[in-house]
Write a structure and sequence with these properties.
With 483 residues, this protein is an alpha/beta fold. It folds into two domains: 269 residues, Aldehyde Dehydrogenase, Chain A, domain 1 (3-Layer(aba) Sandwich), CATH 3.40.605.10; 185 residues, 3-Layer(aba) Sandwich (Aldehyde Dehydrogenase, Chain A, domain 2). 38% of the residues lie in helices and 23% in strands. The protein has 15 helices and 25 strands. The protein has a seven-stranded mixed sheet with strand order 15-18-19-14-13-21-22, sandwiched between helices. Strands 10-9-8-11-12-24 form a six-stranded mixed sheet, sandwiched between helices. A three-stranded mixed sheet has the order 1-5-4, covered by helices on one side. α2 packs antiparallel against α4 and α2 crosses α6. The N and C termini lie far apart (75 Å).
Amino acid sequence: MIATPPGPAVALRRARLLIDGVWTEGPETFPVVDKYSGALIGHADRASHDQVRAAVGAAERSFHTAPLDPSQRFEILRRACDVIERRRTELADTITAEAGFPAADAQNEVTRAIQTILVSAEEGKRLVGEMVPIEGAPGHSHRLAFTIRVPRGVVCAITSFNAPLNFVAHKVGPAIASGNTVVIKAPQATPFSAVLFSQILLEAGLPPGHVNVVQGPGSEIGRWLVADPRIRFYTFTGSTDVGKQLHRDVGLRPVALELGSIAGTIVCADGDLDRAAPRIANSAFRRAGQACTSTQRLFVDRTVLDAFVERFAAAALALTVGDPRDPRTAVGPMISEAEAVRAERWVRDAIDQGARLITGGERKGAQLQPTVLVDVTPTMQVICEEIFAPVVSVIPFDSFDEAIDRINSTSFGLAAGIFTRDISTAMMAARRIHVGVVHINESSSNRVDLIPFSGVKDSGLGREGPKYAMQDMTEERLITINL
């Protein structure tokens, strides 16, 4: 049963659909709860098939009838940054309620979203093609050639709950800045952040049909969106299984997929243990371990294993766990009690199979204590599948080659970290670890929003980061001139 807030009645929110500038009710709604208390915070409208089609149609019409030049896009997105800042408290409180982020993390999410939109606005003014040296070809000295970048049309943005505002910004900002229009499929668990962001874009002056929002079960809404041929580009953040299915279904239409991972970090014998322990703890346990780059496998040189585990366990224990509205809290709840129960079961199964619990492992509702395991084996779920929870397995290694082989042993390849004082070791790791991003003297989870961010293998394809996403969201068209 859904709990209700104690004390005076609290006004419930409503996340309606946005279709062609009109906030629209769906045929039914679904509840959205506070991830810490379980209290009902509001309802979101579930889109019908006709409403999904209408949202895509509105985006397609707006693309053709209300095009924006680069300076207009810049001004709208710049104003949006101002509005986000003005509504910072409302946005941060919304993120804490619907996603369970501690207050500091929610504030950081707002700050990052501002930067994502600002960088998108700036890059939109610099989006150009290149000169092609056609005159160097025999018989073509009288010709010029160059490329231009042309927006694709309707972009479908399917986002995830674990960055409810900034993931939307990462998809919508580059799409608008490069001249496209957007249909957002908001997460069921965290729809309010996407709705607020869309309100802000309209307030900033974006043409009504340029941004549309639909909500509902991904298996249903996503299927309808994929089947609509008017959508020309898909940008998706979510599970690898769903991403693979989307990739199969869209045919030759381009996609950008940011998918799962079992991220690893290496601590070498010469690494700064005092620096590494708290940084990796933050990487592993922030957002309750629900980030695709959260350190899940921690490879430690056996000669410093005991010394490091002692420091790492202390860093984990130092993190305050509890109410995300308490400013002291560093680790809030997971997205649901069901997910916390699943993660706890994986931990218990590992212990039953011989793993040793160093700290954590206790669960209360959706809250799972930061958990550190040792003596794990390669077949345990806690290290061979993405746990997406505040759980880290410490794995000793005897040689650097062994560490590299172990970190490369999964089908995933999103991000990795390494702590070492040896530049040769660091660069060898950067060249040999098969992931999209390698952080030296940082953990696997360390992202600045302007960087090119992408995975390899089953962790995805295409790139995020405004400049790089905009290249994927536009077509490069060759122009030749006969003089």
